[in-house]
Amino acid sequence: MKDLQHGGVTLRQWLAEKRNVIMLVASLTATMTFQAAINPPGGVWQDDSTENFQGSPVPYPHKAGDAVMPYNHLSAYTAFYIANSLSFVMFLYTIIMLITGLVFRNNYFSRFLNAIMIVFMCMTSTSVLVVAIVSLNAITPKQYKKYISRQTGKMLILISCFLVIAVIAVLARILLVIRRRQRRRSSSDDVNHANGDQEAP
Fold it and tell me: What is the pTM of this model?
């Protein structure tokens, strides 16, 4: 890979900096998902309870260390379990790819791995969002869920508007850069043609 320069920074230096940033984010998120796995929303039971003092079975038999959430929100806990597990596994894959450095080599296999890593990062971000929403919904009291849902909807609409504006700005910036490069190429081609005409007898 050639050491192309842009703004005084070589391409290899930019890739190394990008790898360090992604590694930091992946490590922090993997730690967060692992912590959520061992300490799920609602906590865990602190005692063993399978029968009462009369020897009759209790309504919710459990042992110390069992998660409390599935006893009250089984479907939400299932979504939390799947999303959190996917996030943890995908971030481990990302960390392994960054440590080996395969995704930053200049060949087709590395480009394929890089594309997979980007897809995994997007899926992991979505999974983390699902984990956060499920966790907040599980620990929110029922009498306040409607009010909080309405306020959250308003906030999401506002955030979506800002995101649309940001995407439009980024696309406009990309188009501007592309046009500038095309103009530079056309001007350099014109200069080359002019030099060729002057050298011709």
Answer: 0.60
Contacts of residue 117, Cβ cutoff 8 Å, sequence gap at least 6: 93, 94, 97, 103
Cα-flanking dihedrals φ and ψ of residue 6, to 5°?
-150, 115
Spatial distance between the Cα atoms of 79 and 77, rounded to a whole number of angstroms: 5
Nearest CA to 124 out of 34, 24, 30 is that of 30
Distance CA 19, CA 25 (A): 10
Tokens of 91: 């971030």
C-alpha 32: how far from its chain's center? 13
Q: Which amino acid is at 135?
A: S
- Give residue-wise pLDDT tens across range 117-156: 778 878 888 888 888 888 888 778 878 878 887 888 888 8
